[in-house]
Design goal:
By secondary structure, the chain is mainly α. The protein has a two-stranded antiparallel ribbon with strand order 1-2. It has three helices and two strands, in the order H-H-H-E-E. Helix 1 packs across helix 2 and helix 1 crosses helix 3.
Length: 77
């Protein structure tokens, strides 16, 4: 599966399962990660996550910790 296909599958599951579900939360994480990092990086991370049994998460870069409350990078968790 390509990263785009994985992303679309996760977004569809988020819509299907609705507000408050784990799928909805993960869909939001992926959407925010996409906005932070762009399609190419997130689709690559999704392929790596699929192959390693991990998930994409949000984190803080070393530079981003200076007074910023919101995550600023996408990582595998």
């Amino acid at each position: 599966m390509t990263g785009k296909e994985i992303f679309d599958r996760c977004q569809l599951a988020a819509l299907k399962n609705g507000l408050g579900s784990q799928e909805f939360h993960y869909g939001n994480v992926l959407y925010q990660a996409l906005q932070l990092e762009g399609e190419e990086k997130i689709f690559q991370l999704l392929e790596q996550a699929e192959n390693s049994g991990k998930r994409v998460g949000l984190g803080y870069s070393a530079d981003g910790f200076k007074g910023i409350n919101d995550p600023d990078i996408a990582i595998l968790v």
